[in-house]
Amino acid sequence: MDNSEYVERLGRQRPAKFKTLASEVGFCFSIMTSQIMAEYFISGFNVIIPVLAKDLDIPPSATVWPASAFALTAGSSLLIFGRFADQYGGYIVYTLGLLWHLTWTLIAGFSTNQLMLNFCRALQGFGPAAFLSSGIMLLGSSYRPGPRKNIVFSIYGGCAPVGFFSGIFVSGLSGQWLTWRWYFWIGAILVGFSLATAVIFMPSDFKSKRLETADKPVQMDWLGAACLFAGLVLTFYAVNDGAHAPQGWSTPYIIVCFILGILLLGVSVYVEGWVATQPLLPASLFKVSQMKPFLLALFFSYGVLGTWLLYTTLYAENIMSAQPMQLVAWFVPFAVGGLVLSPLGGYIFHKVPGTVLLVISGVAWIVAPLLFAIAPQGASYWAYTFPAMICGTLGIDITYNIANVFVTSKLPDDEQGLAGAVCNSILFLGVSFFLGFADLTAAETASKGSRQSYKAVFWYAVGCATVSVVLLVGFVKIEEAKSELKEGEESPA
């Protein structure tokens, strides 16, 4: 057997850590469902906001904050939990993250006012930060580059639109026939299934991780972590709240938060680059070919995702007068598209250059908000909304899958926690950051009426998507995700 055939066979085999197919399926099921639940609590909350806001007396100007608080805390702490995963293994961080998420999801269902809801939503975000970074670490370290890994990561990425639709479905069901509290409680039950599956099927990697790092222990960069987390929270708080502060961006506390946030981020850059012996973001990450422009393009692309999800929902409810369950039906193509693209992507990622797929995805992301931006009054669902849903699932599903495969394949096993953190922190921070400016766009154009205000936001999303495509076409070249030996492995003589 020649070297290429040997490597190809390795890329198709079940990893040795899974003694049976059932153990592999159980392992993957837990991680896939955790991805579904992360998306569930992003999408569904947007649909339940009108009912929830009425019950808790939340003014319209304050509804964006509880929607973005979840993404903000998740994105700001992902690197920290990624480091914990590299220190103690993915199993501990993953299961504790699910348990934490389950706890605060249950409590959120008992919220009695806006402050309690915001507090629970913010604390909820630490759960996905833990189980998403460690989940990708567990997947990335379990599967070598090749077709099997491509298929697994494609299914994982396809769980994003499924989770999105699940959130829409349960929130629509709760808002129209139950109570908004059941949106959280049903979500808690589903998180419980993911946690139980992990405990039963997932092998612990604590001992192997400690042995692996015995000669060179992985340490937490506490100073860099504190500055990075505080800087991101303050900066993104200013961005998200600036549009609705008493004096807008001129409000003193907005200015102070923004300046302090930028200064702390500057300090974190200094600490990471020149002080920390084991920085959260090692310089080696950015030395990987294509990594810097790729991550920047992802940041813009995920910003379109957050803006498109929220304002598509608001446009459908407030302008197209869609009822909760009708909105569920409208988003069916988005979920089905993800289910189709998942297996398809797994079969073609190792045959088609990643750049080609990313450009297709990027163009779809331009078209998705564009269709809403140009839709006339009383526009047909089939002429505008339906194709926008198809483009939406093309936009997020392909991009997310390639990002996960690319980053985890380029980093060694001892940095897979970092890989998972980077993949998801870019997503959550992109959602929160660009959503803040989308809200600002809506606020500045509110005098033109809700419909024109929403359209202005969609044009803003088109601009962000265009920037992402320009970066991908001009600066990123990703080859096919072929079978390769893992770092440290040798081919047979």
UniProtKB/TrEMBL annotation:
GO terms for cellular component: membrane. It comes from the Eukaryota. It comes from Periconia macrospinosa. This is MFS multidrug transporter. The chain crosses the membrane at residues 21-42, 62-81, 88-110, 122-139, 151-170, 182-201, 222-239, 251-273, 294-315, 327-349, 356-375, 381-406, 418-437, 457-476. The keyword Membrane applies. It is found in: Membrane. Its main location: membrane. PANTHER family: MAJOR FACILITATOR SUPERFAMILY MULTIDRUG TRANSPORTER MFSC (PTHR42718), MULTIDRUG TRANSPORTER, PUTATIVE (AFU_ORTHOLOGUE AFUA_4G13820)-RELATED (PTHR42718:SF36). It holds the Pfam family MFS_1.
